[in-house]
Task: structure prediction
Amino acid sequence: MVPKKQIDLKMAVNAISDVIQNRPRPLRDFDQIYMKAGDMVMQSEYVASWADGKRLAFIGDGDSISVCAAYLRQREIVDYGPSKIMVFDFDERIVQAIKRFADKERLDHLDATLYNVLDAFPDVSRYDCFYTNPPWGAYNNGESVNVFTQRGMEAIGYEGEGLIVIADDEDLDWPKQVLGSVQNYASHSGFYVSRMAPRLHLYHLDDAPELRSCNLTISSIPGAAKSFTSEPITSPERLENFYGRSRAPRVRYVRERKRLDYGMAHEDEYELELLEEKH
Ligand SMILES: C[S@@+](CC[C@H](N)C(=O)[O-])C[C@H]1O[C@@H](n2cnc3c(N)ncnc32)[C@H](O)[C@@H]1O
Result:
């Protein structure tokens, strides 16, 4: 972990603003609920420092923390960051938006690929750490978090660290139950909780604007690493209520219809009433 030093906040916020302009609009059906801008600044600086010099896999990343972490370094706002970043997401709009931004800003270490966590994880080269902000598993006792976490563990070959961003609330029961379930799953998979930073981030979430998430860091227990195997996820109890009550997955990929400039208004959002012509 790199020691913290002051960053230029104005430059950092402006960089994050560039990334936000590039993001597709969120699809609530698949739990795409974006983190608020101030929290993205803090989170991406933290991720850049936590994964400094490491190969980092994102299991889903609608928020674009991957892009922010790479871009903060490129802009010399921080002088640390991951050596390689790969985003695995089932939404082609997100994948292509990341690729286009990486291309435009010459973020050579950043890439994205289409992947659904229900499918076996591709046997790609190993990563050192993973990051996931999954569906929060309010109606399946954290099982959707565990599915994303499993893919993260596979990405690092069960050796290294993972940063899991999930709900954390003092008054509600379900986030505590989910945190318990995820910690239990981690410990049965050869990991321990090495850090927990409570109630950090807020989201653009209309029906629960005060619901925060925490950073739950897990680390592999030395000597406990498994060899790489990965199977599709088919068990009904892991899939039921995956995206919320009675919302089991039914989509393999979200496809991009046409290339959009996400920062600009779409033609179907407005019409032009012209100045009257003079005769
Ligand atoms: C589930 S959302 C969680 C909220 C988070 N703040 C966000 O919007 O990124 C995280 C990411 O997971 C992706 N995702 C959802 N279902 C997926 C699946 N079955 N396989 C792979 N990625 C998925 C979404 O496209 C999104 O980018």
